[in-house]
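Researcher: I'm comparing several assemblies side by side, and this is the next one on my list. It has 476 residues spread over two chains. Same procedure as the others: predict the full complex and return the structure.
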Amino acid sequence: MKVLIVGAGISGLFIAYELVKRGVKDIVVIDSSYPGSGASLRNVSCFRSSFTSPEHVILMKESISIWLKLRDELGMKLEQRGYLWVARKPETMDTFRKLVDFHHQYSIPTRIVDVDEVKNIEPNINTNIVAGAMVDPTAGRMPILENFINLYLRVKSLGVKVVPYTTALKLEASGSRVVRAVTTRGEIESDYFVIAAGGGSAKLVKTVGIDLPIVDIPRHPLVTEPYRETIRSGLIIDWDTPGSPHITQNEHGSFILARDLEDVPEASIYSQRIDAFSHIVKPLVELLPFLTKVNIVRYWMGYYDMTPDHHPIYGPLPPYENLYIAAGFSGHGMMMAPVTGKLIASWILDGKPYIDIANNLTAERFKTGRLVKELAVIG
Amino acid sequence: MGGEVAKKGTIIICRCNDVTLDDLMKAIEMGIDDFELLRRYLRLGFGPCQGRSCIMIAARIFARATGKSLGEVLANYKVRPPIVPIPTKLVLRGVKK
Protein backbone atom coordinates (compact mmCIF):
# COMPACT_ATOMS: atom_id res chain seq x y z
CA MET A 1 0.00 0.00 0.00
CA LYS A 2 1.37 3.35 -1.08
CA VAL A 3 0.42 6.72 0.40
CA LEU A 4 1.25 10.05 -1.23
CA ILE A 5 1.11 13.02 1.12
CA VAL A 6 1.07 16.46 -0.49
CA GLY A 7 2.66 18.97 1.89
CA ALA A 8 5.81 18.32 3.94
CA GLY A 9 4.73 20.62 6.73
CA ILE A 10 4.29 19.53 10.30
CA SER A 11 0.85 17.99 9.58
CA GLY A 12 2.09 16.00 6.58
CA LEU A 13 5.13 14.75 8.47
CA PHE A 14 3.10 13.70 11.54
CA ILE A 15 0.66 11.85 9.24
CA ALA A 16 3.66 10.08 7.68
CA TYR A 17 5.08 9.34 11.14
CA GLU A 18 1.85 7.73 12.39
CA LEU A 19 1.35 5.74 9.19
CA VAL A 20 4.89 4.37 9.27
CA LYS A 21 4.51 3.50 12.96
CA ARG A 22 1.41 1.51 12.03
CA GLY A 23 3.30 -0.46 9.40
CA VAL A 24 2.77 1.45 6.16
CA LYS A 25 6.04 1.06 4.27
CA ASP A 26 5.64 3.05 1.07
CA ILE A 27 5.10 6.72 1.94
CA VAL A 28 6.07 9.67 -0.23
CA VAL A 29 5.73 13.27 0.98
CA ILE A 30 6.12 16.04 -1.57
CA ASP A 31 6.35 19.79 -1.07
CA SER A 32 6.47 22.73 -3.45
CA SER A 33 9.35 24.27 -1.48
CA TYR A 34 11.56 23.17 1.43
CA PRO A 35 9.97 21.04 4.18
CA GLY A 36 8.14 23.22 6.67
CA SER A 37 8.20 26.22 4.34
CA GLY A 38 4.56 27.12 4.98
CA ALA A 39 2.89 27.94 8.28
CA SER A 40 4.82 25.17 10.11
CA LEU A 41 7.92 27.32 10.50
CA ARG A 42 6.26 30.75 10.30
CA ASN A 43 4.13 30.62 13.45
CA VAL A 44 4.88 31.98 16.92
CA SER A 45 5.27 28.37 18.20
CA CYS A 46 2.79 28.37 21.07
CA PHE A 47 0.15 25.83 22.05
CA ARG A 48 -3.01 25.63 24.17
CA SER A 49 -6.18 23.61 24.52
CA SER A 50 -8.30 26.40 26.03
CA PHE A 51 -10.49 26.97 22.99
CA THR A 52 -14.20 27.70 22.85
CA SER A 53 -15.59 24.74 20.91
CA PRO A 54 -15.78 21.11 22.11
CA GLU A 55 -14.06 20.01 18.87
CA HIS A 56 -11.01 22.20 19.40
CA VAL A 57 -10.83 21.59 23.14
CA ILE A 58 -10.99 17.80 22.93
CA LEU A 59 -8.63 17.45 19.98
CA MET A 60 -6.14 20.00 21.26
CA LYS A 61 -6.05 18.43 24.73
CA GLU A 62 -5.23 15.13 23.06
CA SER A 63 -2.64 16.86 20.86
CA ILE A 64 -0.88 18.40 23.85
CA SER A 65 -0.84 15.04 25.66
CA ILE A 66 0.79 13.51 22.55
CA TRP A 67 3.31 16.38 22.38
CA LEU A 68 4.19 15.64 26.01
CA LYS A 69 4.68 11.93 25.25
CA LEU A 70 6.84 12.86 22.27
CA ARG A 71 9.38 14.33 24.67
CA ASP A 72 10.43 10.76 25.47
CA GLU A 73 9.47 9.18 22.16
CA LEU A 74 11.23 11.67 19.88
CA GLY A 75 13.09 14.05 22.16
CA MET A 76 10.63 16.85 21.41
CA LYS A 77 10.90 19.98 23.54
CA LEU A 78 8.05 22.03 24.97
CA GLU A 79 7.37 24.07 28.07
CA GLN A 80 3.97 24.53 29.73
CA ARG A 81 4.57 28.08 30.88
CA GLY A 82 0.96 29.11 30.60
CA TYR A 83 -0.96 31.66 28.53
CA LEU A 84 -1.97 35.00 30.02
CA TRP A 85 -5.00 36.71 28.43
CA VAL A 86 -4.97 40.27 29.69
CA ALA A 87 -8.18 42.29 30.01
CA ARG A 88 -8.00 46.06 29.78
CA LYS A 89 -11.76 46.52 30.28
CA PRO A 90 -13.42 45.39 33.52
CA GLU A 91 -16.39 43.93 31.58
CA THR A 92 -14.02 41.55 29.76
CA MET A 93 -13.59 39.71 33.04
CA ASP A 94 -17.20 38.53 32.64
CA THR A 95 -16.28 37.00 29.29
CA PHE A 96 -13.26 35.34 30.89
CA ARG A 97 -15.45 33.88 33.65
CA LYS A 98 -17.74 32.32 31.02
CA LEU A 99 -14.75 30.90 29.17
CA VAL A 100 -13.29 29.46 32.38
CA ASP A 101 -16.65 27.79 33.15
CA PHE A 102 -16.60 26.26 29.67
CA HIS A 103 -12.99 25.06 30.02
CA HIS A 104 -13.72 23.50 33.41
CA GLN A 105 -16.39 21.32 31.78
CA TYR A 106 -13.49 19.76 29.85
CA SER A 107 -11.07 19.67 32.82
CA ILE A 108 -8.87 22.45 31.47
CA PRO A 109 -7.65 24.29 34.56
CA THR A 110 -7.94 27.89 33.32
CA ARG A 111 -8.47 30.47 36.04
CA ILE A 112 -9.23 34.13 36.61
CA VAL A 113 -6.49 36.25 38.15
CA ASP A 114 -6.77 39.73 39.62
CA VAL A 115 -4.43 42.64 38.97
CA ASP A 116 -2.14 41.80 41.90
CA GLU A 117 -1.68 38.29 40.63
CA VAL A 118 -1.04 39.56 37.09
CA LYS A 119 1.77 41.65 38.58
CA ASN A 120 3.02 38.56 40.36
CA ILE A 121 3.02 36.41 37.22
CA GLU A 122 4.42 39.11 34.95
CA PRO A 123 6.17 41.81 36.99
CA ASN A 124 6.89 43.84 33.84
CA ILE A 125 3.27 44.39 32.86
CA ASN A 126 1.89 47.91 33.22
CA THR A 127 -0.99 46.97 35.53
CA ASN A 128 -2.36 50.55 35.44
CA ILE A 129 -4.14 49.63 32.20
CA VAL A 130 -5.08 46.08 33.24
CA ALA A 131 -8.38 44.94 34.77
CA GLY A 132 -7.35 41.34 35.31
CA ALA A 133 -6.53 38.26 33.30
CA MET A 134 -7.25 34.65 32.48
CA VAL A 135 -4.53 32.03 32.78
CA ASP A 136 -4.21 28.63 31.13
CA PRO A 137 -1.37 26.89 32.97
CA THR A 138 -1.35 23.92 30.57
CA ALA A 139 -0.60 26.08 27.52
CA GLY A 140 2.91 27.02 26.53
CA ARG A 141 5.57 27.35 23.87
CA MET A 142 8.08 25.17 22.08
CA PRO A 143 11.21 25.52 19.95
CA ILE A 144 9.33 24.70 16.77
CA LEU A 145 12.30 24.94 14.40
CA GLU A 146 14.19 22.33 16.41
CA ASN A 147 11.13 20.10 16.89
CA PHE A 148 10.24 20.23 13.20
CA ILE A 149 13.75 19.29 12.07
CA ASN A 150 13.80 16.51 14.65
CA LEU A 151 10.56 15.11 13.17
CA TYR A 152 11.85 15.55 9.60
CA LEU A 153 15.02 13.58 10.34
CA ARG A 154 13.04 10.91 12.17
CA VAL A 155 10.50 10.22 9.42
CA LYS A 156 13.30 10.06 6.87
CA SER A 157 15.22 7.57 9.00
CA LEU A 158 12.04 5.46 9.18
CA GLY A 159 12.03 5.17 5.39
CA VAL A 160 9.57 7.91 4.42
CA LYS A 161 10.59 9.55 1.13
CA VAL A 162 10.43 13.33 1.49
CA VAL A 163 10.69 15.04 -1.89
CA PRO A 164 10.94 18.85 -1.67
CA TYR A 165 10.70 21.40 -4.53
CA THR A 166 8.05 19.32 -6.26
CA THR A 167 4.69 21.02 -6.78
CA ALA A 168 1.52 19.00 -7.21
CA LEU A 169 -0.22 20.64 -10.19
CA LYS A 170 -3.31 18.46 -10.36
CA LEU A 171 -4.88 15.19 -9.31
CA GLU A 172 -6.32 12.74 -11.81
CA ALA A 173 -9.20 10.42 -10.96
CA SER A 174 -10.80 7.38 -12.51
CA GLY A 175 -14.29 6.66 -11.25
CA SER A 176 -14.33 6.80 -7.45
CA ARG A 177 -10.55 6.72 -7.08
CA VAL A 178 -7.82 9.29 -7.45
CA VAL A 179 -5.08 7.54 -9.41
CA ARG A 180 -2.23 9.98 -9.69
CA ALA A 181 -0.83 13.38 -8.90
CA VAL A 182 0.75 15.33 -11.74
CA THR A 183 3.71 17.29 -10.39
CA THR A 184 6.33 19.65 -11.75
CA ARG A 185 8.69 16.67 -11.71
CA GLY A 186 6.52 13.97 -13.22
CA GLU A 187 3.51 11.88 -12.28
CA ILE A 188 3.13 9.98 -9.02
CA GLU A 189 0.67 7.09 -8.78
CA SER A 190 -0.53 5.98 -5.37
CA ASP A 191 -3.17 3.94 -3.53
CA TYR A 192 -4.02 6.75 -1.10
CA PHE A 193 -3.66 10.51 -1.35
CA VAL A 194 -3.52 12.85 1.63
CA ILE A 195 -3.63 16.59 1.00
CA ALA A 196 -1.98 18.57 3.81
CA ALA A 197 -0.90 21.64 1.88
CA GLY A 198 -2.55 24.52 3.78
CA GLY A 199 -4.38 26.94 1.51
CA GLY A 200 -2.86 25.22 -1.53
CA SER A 201 -4.98 22.17 -0.68
CA ALA A 202 -8.14 23.87 -1.94
CA LYS A 203 -6.57 24.65 -5.33
CA LEU A 204 -5.31 21.09 -5.69
CA VAL A 205 -8.57 19.25 -4.87
CA LYS A 206 -10.41 21.68 -7.14
CA THR A 207 -8.72 19.79 -10.02
CA VAL A 208 -10.90 16.77 -9.18
CA GLY A 209 -14.02 18.86 -8.74
CA ILE A 210 -14.01 19.39 -4.97
CA ASP A 211 -14.63 22.85 -3.53
CA LEU A 212 -13.10 23.56 -0.13
CA PRO A 213 -13.55 26.94 1.53
CA ILE A 214 -9.95 27.61 2.60
CA VAL A 215 -8.54 31.13 2.26
CA ASP A 216 -4.96 32.14 3.07
CA ILE A 217 -5.03 35.19 5.35
CA PRO A 218 -1.66 36.98 5.74
CA ARG A 219 -0.13 37.30 9.19
CA HIS A 220 2.81 39.48 10.21
CA PRO A 221 5.10 38.45 13.10
CA LEU A 222 8.14 40.47 14.24
CA VAL A 223 11.11 39.19 16.21
CA THR A 224 13.54 41.15 18.36
CA GLU A 225 17.16 40.65 19.33
CA PRO A 226 17.62 38.28 22.28
CA TYR A 227 17.36 39.57 25.85
CA ARG A 228 17.42 37.97 29.29
CA GLU A 229 14.19 36.26 30.33
CA THR A 230 11.65 39.04 30.86
CA ILE A 231 8.36 37.28 30.11
CA ARG A 232 7.51 34.15 32.07
CA SER A 233 4.31 33.14 30.28
CA GLY A 234 4.36 31.14 27.07
CA LEU A 235 2.18 33.83 25.50
CA ILE A 236 0.64 37.11 26.65
CA ILE A 237 -2.45 38.22 24.74
CA ASP A 238 -3.89 41.74 24.79
CA TRP A 239 -7.53 40.61 24.53
CA ASP A 240 -9.25 44.01 24.36
CA THR A 241 -7.21 45.50 21.53
CA PRO A 242 -8.51 44.69 18.02
CA GLY A 243 -6.44 41.94 16.38
CA SER A 244 -5.42 40.61 19.82
CA PRO A 245 -1.75 41.67 19.90
CA HIS A 246 0.32 38.90 21.46
CA ILE A 247 3.89 38.35 22.54
CA THR A 248 6.10 35.41 23.50
CA GLN A 249 9.77 35.22 24.43
CA ASN A 250 11.44 32.23 22.84
CA GLU A 251 14.07 29.90 24.32
CA HIS A 252 16.84 32.06 22.81
CA GLY A 253 15.54 35.22 24.47
CA SER A 254 13.99 36.89 21.42
CA PHE A 255 10.53 38.38 21.73
CA ILE A 256 8.09 37.45 18.98
CA LEU A 257 5.31 40.01 18.55
CA ALA A 258 2.25 39.68 16.35
CA ARG A 259 -1.24 41.04 15.82
CA ASP A 260 -3.99 40.10 13.41
CA LEU A 261 -4.14 42.99 10.95
CA GLU A 262 -6.81 43.56 8.34
CA ASP A 263 -5.23 42.38 5.12
CA VAL A 264 -5.98 41.28 1.56
CA PRO A 265 -6.87 37.56 1.52
CA GLU A 266 -4.42 35.48 -0.52
CA ALA A 267 -1.97 38.43 -0.71
CA SER A 268 1.56 37.34 -1.60
CA ILE A 269 3.70 35.96 1.20
CA TYR A 270 6.21 38.66 0.25
CA SER A 271 3.81 41.64 0.40
CA GLN A 272 5.36 43.01 3.56
CA ARG A 273 3.78 46.05 5.14
CA ILE A 274 5.79 48.83 6.72
CA ASP A 275 2.73 49.78 8.82
CA ALA A 276 2.75 46.32 10.46
CA PHE A 277 5.59 47.45 12.75
CA SER A 278 3.75 50.30 14.46
CA HIS A 279 0.39 48.49 14.57
CA ILE A 280 1.94 45.54 16.35
CA VAL A 281 4.38 47.38 18.62
CA LYS A 282 2.16 50.20 19.91
CA PRO A 283 -0.36 48.22 22.00
CA LEU A 284 2.28 45.84 23.29
CA VAL A 285 4.49 48.72 24.45
CA GLU A 286 1.53 50.06 26.42
CA LEU A 287 1.24 46.70 28.13
CA LEU A 288 4.98 45.99 28.50
CA PRO A 289 6.79 49.36 28.67
CA PHE A 290 10.27 47.74 28.61
CA LEU A 291 9.63 46.99 24.93
CA THR A 292 10.61 50.60 24.11
CA LYS A 293 14.18 49.47 24.73
CA VAL A 294 14.34 46.50 22.35
CA ASN A 295 15.48 46.21 18.74
CA ILE A 296 13.41 44.52 16.04
CA VAL A 297 15.70 42.30 14.05
CA ARG A 298 13.37 40.60 11.58
CA TYR A 299 9.87 40.56 10.18
CA TRP A 300 8.24 37.83 8.11
CA MET A 301 4.85 36.84 6.81
CA GLY A 302 2.88 33.63 7.10
CA TYR A 303 -0.67 32.50 6.42
CA TYR A 304 -3.55 31.37 8.53
CA ASP A 305 -5.28 28.92 6.17
CA MET A 306 -8.75 29.97 7.28
CA THR A 307 -12.01 28.09 6.95
CA PRO A 308 -15.42 29.73 7.51
CA ASP A 309 -15.65 28.32 11.07
CA HIS A 310 -11.92 28.56 11.84
CA HIS A 311 -11.66 24.77 12.32
CA PRO A 312 -9.65 22.35 10.22
CA ILE A 313 -11.06 20.14 7.48
CA TYR A 314 -10.26 16.51 8.21
CA GLY A 315 -10.95 13.12 6.71
CA PRO A 316 -12.14 11.62 3.45
CA LEU A 317 -13.22 13.72 0.49
CA PRO A 318 -16.15 11.99 -1.22
CA PRO A 319 -16.91 10.93 -3.87
CA TYR A 320 -13.33 9.63 -3.83
CA GLU A 321 -12.65 6.66 -1.58
CA ASN A 322 -8.87 7.13 -1.37
CA LEU A 323 -8.54 10.92 -1.00
CA TYR A 324 -8.09 12.55 2.43
CA ILE A 325 -7.63 16.10 3.64
CA ALA A 326 -5.93 17.71 6.66
CA ALA A 327 -5.91 21.46 6.06
CA GLY A 328 -7.59 24.75 6.95
CA PHE A 329 -6.12 24.85 10.45
CA SER A 330 -6.83 28.58 10.73
CA GLY A 331 -3.71 29.29 12.77
CA HIS A 332 -3.57 26.12 14.88
CA GLY A 333 -1.97 23.50 12.65
CA MET A 334 1.35 23.31 14.47
CA MET A 335 -0.09 22.65 17.93
CA MET A 336 -2.65 20.25 16.46
CA ALA A 337 -0.23 18.29 14.24
CA PRO A 338 0.32 15.20 16.46
CA VAL A 339 -3.42 14.53 16.77
CA THR A 340 -3.80 15.29 13.05
CA GLY A 341 -1.28 12.51 12.33
CA LYS A 342 -3.11 9.94 14.44
CA LEU A 343 -6.55 10.97 13.15
CA ILE A 344 -5.67 10.70 9.47
CA ALA A 345 -3.76 7.44 10.01
CA SER A 346 -6.80 5.94 11.77
CA TRP A 347 -9.15 7.25 9.07
CA ILE A 348 -7.06 5.54 6.37
CA LEU A 349 -6.28 2.31 8.21
CA ASP A 350 -9.42 1.79 10.35
CA GLY A 351 -11.99 3.60 8.22
CA LYS A 352 -12.85 6.03 11.01
CA PRO A 353 -11.12 8.59 13.22
CA TYR A 354 -9.93 7.26 16.59
CA ILE A 355 -11.66 10.22 18.29
CA ASP A 356 -15.35 10.46 17.37
CA ILE A 357 -15.66 14.24 17.54
CA ALA A 358 -13.30 14.57 14.57
CA ASN A 359 -16.25 13.42 12.45
CA ASN A 360 -17.71 16.92 12.99
CA LEU A 361 -14.77 18.37 11.08
CA THR A 362 -15.16 16.71 7.68
CA ALA A 363 -15.80 18.76 4.55
CA GLU A 364 -19.42 17.55 4.74
CA ARG A 365 -20.21 20.36 7.20
CA PHE A 366 -19.97 23.02 4.52
CA LYS A 367 -22.75 21.27 2.59
CA THR A 368 -25.02 20.63 5.56
CA GLY A 369 -24.32 24.01 7.12
CA ARG A 370 -23.37 22.41 10.45
CA LEU A 371 -20.41 24.69 11.07
CA VAL A 372 -18.43 24.76 14.31
CA LYS A 373 -18.33 28.00 16.29
CA GLU A 374 -15.14 29.37 17.82
CA LEU A 375 -14.87 32.69 19.68
CA ALA A 376 -11.13 33.06 20.13
CA VAL A 377 -8.85 32.40 17.18
CA ILE A 378 -5.50 33.46 18.54
CA GLY A 379 -2.11 31.93 19.34
CA MET B 1 38.94 26.30 6.10
CA GLY B 2 41.79 27.39 8.32
CA GLY B 3 44.07 24.45 7.63
CA GLU B 4 45.17 22.45 10.63
CA VAL B 5 45.93 25.41 12.86
CA ALA B 6 42.57 25.91 14.52
CA LYS B 7 40.29 23.14 15.76
CA LYS B 8 36.87 22.99 14.08
CA GLY B 9 35.17 23.73 17.38
CA THR B 10 36.89 27.06 17.59
CA ILE B 11 36.24 28.25 14.07
CA ILE B 12 33.28 30.57 14.29
CA ILE B 13 30.91 30.59 11.31
CA CYS B 14 28.25 32.86 12.79
CA ARG B 15 29.25 35.53 15.27
CA CYS B 16 25.71 36.51 16.20
CA ASN B 17 24.82 33.06 17.50
CA ASP B 18 28.29 31.57 18.14
CA VAL B 19 27.89 28.80 15.57
CA THR B 20 31.15 26.93 14.90
CA LEU B 21 32.36 24.97 11.90
CA ASP B 22 32.02 21.88 14.06
CA ASP B 23 28.32 22.68 14.72
CA LEU B 24 27.82 23.07 10.99
CA MET B 25 29.51 19.79 10.06
CA LYS B 26 27.61 17.91 12.78
CA ALA B 27 24.26 19.27 11.52
CA ILE B 28 25.09 18.13 7.98
CA GLU B 29 26.15 14.70 9.28
CA MET B 30 22.85 14.45 11.19
CA GLY B 31 21.13 14.43 7.82
CA ILE B 32 19.97 18.02 7.42
CA ASP B 33 20.01 18.10 3.63
CA ASP B 34 18.34 21.43 2.88
CA PHE B 35 20.08 24.75 3.44
CA GLU B 36 16.88 26.47 4.62
CA LEU B 37 16.44 23.78 7.29
CA LEU B 38 20.12 24.01 8.21
CA ARG B 39 19.76 27.76 8.69
CA ARG B 40 16.74 27.26 10.91
CA TYR B 41 18.48 24.57 12.93
CA LEU B 42 21.64 26.59 13.55
CA ARG B 43 19.91 29.99 13.44
CA LEU B 44 22.22 31.24 10.70
CA GLY B 45 21.07 34.68 9.58
CA PHE B 46 18.79 35.05 12.59
CA GLY B 47 21.02 37.52 14.42
CA PRO B 48 21.47 41.27 14.14
CA CYS B 49 23.78 40.97 11.11
CA GLN B 50 21.02 39.22 9.11
CA GLY B 51 23.49 36.70 7.74
CA ARG B 52 26.01 39.11 6.32
CA SER B 53 28.94 37.21 7.80
CA CYS B 54 27.69 33.63 8.02
CA ILE B 55 25.49 32.88 5.03
CA MET B 56 28.11 32.77 2.29
CA ILE B 57 30.55 30.82 4.45
CA ALA B 58 27.90 28.29 5.49
CA ALA B 59 26.44 28.04 1.98
CA ARG B 60 29.85 27.21 0.45
CA ILE B 61 30.60 24.55 3.06
CA PHE B 62 27.10 23.09 2.69
CA ALA B 63 27.38 23.07 -1.13
CA ARG B 64 30.74 21.28 -0.94
CA ALA B 65 29.48 18.73 1.59
CA THR B 66 26.27 17.90 -0.29
CA GLY B 67 27.50 18.21 -3.87
CA LYS B 68 24.92 20.90 -4.66
CA SER B 69 25.66 24.08 -6.56
CA LEU B 70 25.86 27.33 -4.63
CA GLY B 71 22.92 28.65 -6.67
CA GLU B 72 20.82 25.67 -5.69
CA VAL B 73 21.78 26.01 -2.02
CA LEU B 74 20.84 29.70 -1.91
CA ALA B 75 17.76 29.50 -4.16
CA ASN B 76 15.33 29.94 -1.28
CA TYR B 77 17.35 32.29 0.89
CA LYS B 78 15.45 35.50 1.60
CA VAL B 79 16.69 38.58 3.37
CA ARG B 80 13.94 39.73 5.68
CA PRO B 81 13.26 43.35 6.61
CA PRO B 82 14.48 45.40 8.38
CA ILE B 83 17.93 45.30 6.81
CA VAL B 84 19.46 46.42 10.12
CA PRO B 85 17.86 46.06 13.55
CA ILE B 86 15.59 49.00 14.40
CA PRO B 87 14.63 50.20 17.87
CA THR B 88 10.92 49.93 18.66
CA LYS B 89 11.14 53.60 19.71
CA LEU B 90 11.82 54.51 16.09
CA VAL B 91 8.78 52.53 14.96
CA LEU B 92 6.56 54.40 17.41
CA ARG B 93 7.69 57.85 16.34
CA GLY B 94 4.88 59.58 14.49
CA VAL B 95 2.23 57.05 15.50
CA LYS B 96 -1.09 58.79 16.20
CA LYS B 97 -2.34 58.39 19.73
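Model: For your comparison table: Residues 3 and 11 of chain B are 11 Å apart (CA to CA).
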